[in-house]
Write a structure and sequence with these properties.
This protein is an alpha+beta fold. Helices cover 34% and strands 18% of the residues. It contains 13 helices and ten strands. The two termini are 22 Å apart. It binds protoporphyrin IX containing FE. The site of protoporphyrin IX containing FE has 21 residues, from β3, α8, α9 and β8.
């Protein structure tokens, strides 16, 4: 595995005497992600291009709906590409996948709305609301009615929806199955996540300020070193008799960016894969990770595909050695 990205703290991520999903969001570094465009001799880009050149694989990796067009255009601008260099359509989403190292999805935020005096909601016309705010200082008679409360430009209850993505290296999920879904719907298959962190995730995404970059990380284990663990590939899963030297650690480095104009959030996922024994060469880290695995609730271990493996005597020995 190449060196972990800046701020990646393996001991924090893999250690712990108990296991719960962690929010773990921290302020991130925009230039680090932008610097992953057109990386010369990038193995990741070469591999992604191979998947995108295969029509069946490409149909599994790239998803798109028309509502994503302004957000894709803004994403490429954020990356420093010239306007029009990537077309804002499905072909453009694949073209960006060939040039940018991480996987990504775009989420459309709910339109801003304002609460009316009668308690209902109306889509916000920001310039009209600004005019009303001025007018409330210097009232004029011809204001439209019913008059919205000027200070209450809010988002409606709701969640951003996935409108596009290029995900060639998923950890056992399919981006095409997530098109049109909100974040709580996407997370619905992850036991305990919505109940434990759903409200915090919703508030975070709602308040994400345009241009700011936040990051978090995630880990998983796999029985094959392939970056692309799309369910359709039918790769082997971890079993009770999988020897520790046939287990790979997957580290996901994720970032969130709110794009200012398109009312959209760019969600970025960079995957690194390493043999577990190599990643856990430090005995203290290996022991801490073993304790985290042992403490994981059964339903989470089952979701992460680790239920059988963590009971294996060979694996227990590996963690206690
Ligand atoms: C701060 C925000 C977020 C947090 C804390 C969070 C947390 C998590 C966690 C803990 C998992 C379980 C992964 C595992 O341990 O194996 C997960 C899964 C996942 N998350 Fe998030 N997530 C966030 C935002 C998002 C967003 C914005 C998306 C956008 C699409 C997303 C898409 C997914 C997907 C696709 C999965 C895998 C679901 C599956 O297995 O089908 N997450 N997330």
């Amino acid at each position: 595995m190449t060196a972990p990205p800046p701020g990646f703290d393996l001991a924090r991520l893999l250690g712990g005497e108990s296991y719960r999903f962690q929010f773990g969001v921290r302020r991130g570094q925009p230039d680090w992600w932008r610097g992953q465009l057109d990386v010369p001799d990038s193995e990741t880009l070469a591999e992604r291009t191979r998947w995108l050149d295969d029509p069946a694989a490409r149909a599994d990796c790239v998803t798109w709906e028309g509502a994503a067009a302004p957000a894709l255009a803004e994403t490429t601008e954020w990356l420093g590409l010239a306007p029009g260099e990537i077309t804002p359509d499905a072909a453009g989403a694949a073209a960006l996948g060939r040039r940018w190292e991480p996987d990504w999805v775009l989420l459309r935020r709910p339109r801003k709305t304002e609460r009316m005096e009668d308690g209902g909601w109306q889509e916000a016309d920001i310039s009209a609301a600004r005019a009303r705010m001025k007018a409330s200082i210097n009232p004029e008679p011809e204001l439209p009615s019913p008059r919205p409360l000027p200070s209450s430009i809010l988002r409606p209850p709701g969640s951003p929806r996935l409108v596009a993505g290029c995900v060639c290296f998923p950890s056992h999920w399919a981006v095409t199955e997530k098109l049109g879904l909100t974040v709580p719907e996407i997370h619905g298959v992850v036991p305990t996540l919505n109940a434990d962190l759903g409200a915090r995730i919703a508030t975070f995404l709602d308040r994400l300020a345009p241009g700011a970059v936040f990051e978090r990380e995630n880990w998983g284990l796999a029985a094959a070193p392939d970056r692309n663990q799309h369910p359709r590939r039918g790769l082997p899963r971890l079993q009770a008799d999988t020897p520790p030297n046939r287990v790979w650690l997957r580290l996901e480095h994720q970032a969130f960016v709110a794009l200012p104009r398109a009312e959209a959030i760019l969600f970025i996922i960079g995957v690194r894969v390493a043999p577990l024994a190599e990643a856990l060469a430090d005995p203290a880290l290996r022991g801490a990770f073993g304790r985290q695995l042992a403490a994981m609730p059964d339903e989470i271990a089952a979701y992460k595909g680790l239920a059988a493996l963590r009971r294996s005597p060979a694996v227990r020995k590996f963690f206690s050695a």
